[in-house]
Amino acid sequence: MTRADLSKDPQAVAAMFDNVAEGYDRTNAVATMGLEKHYWRPETFKEIAPRKGMKILDLAAGTGASSVNLREAGAEVVSCDFSVGMLRVGKRRHPELDLVAGDALRLPFADETFDVVTISWALRNVNDVAAALQEMLRVTRPGGRLVVLEQSHPTWKPFRVVYLEYMMRAVPAVAKVVSTNPEAYEYLAESTRAWLPQEPLARAIEGAGWTRVQWRNLTGGLVAIHRAVKAG
User: Fold this and answer.
1) Is 25 marked within a binding site?
2) Of 116, 146, 177, 197, which has the fewest Cβ atoms less than 10 A away?
3) pTM, to two decimals
4) pLDDT, tens digit, for every residue of 21-44?
5) 103 labeled part of a ligand binding site
6) Which sign does the torsion angle of CA 122, 126, 130, 131 carry?
């Protein structure tokens, strides 16, 4: 299995991420020209606002790179992903992390466990977004928060056209140089192009039962951070 398709079959998507696990973080850094590491992730960290004693579910955590800073801020972090290959790489790199294999549609956690649930670059990869958002709501405590970092739609149309061309052509080309499985990045580019714009995603989050849904565009809407609260 080298890549998935837009049917988002869970086994195909998991196998695809297993195949790219070793070089995934490096390829993302190159493909995003450093924006993910130096801007988008830090802004998401600020939105989460981790502190000592806070219990955070880092969903689709991959190799756990995003979980490290949350843990260093004093939060109790559970890093969950359905790609065992990603988790194996993460365990080798960050043995201190609490890594758990789990499916976003059937989270292996009790009701009302976490203060914050966060998911980055992965909501578009589940085959039932509404069900995943409801599962996140289930495991969040009343008054707890959701923070979603995801590819989005640039707000200026000419920029959006250029960006989509970059995603469809340049990202797979970059992946051929730095990734062991460039075909997987064709799927990632396609899934970005097919993904929900900011407002429809906000409505989907609200439809799943979350309240006070808002979003903030980064880099002209290349990505967006959506946030919401579970009613107390």
Assistant:
1) no
2) 177
3) 0.86
4) 787 677 677 667 788 999 999 999
5) yes
6) negative
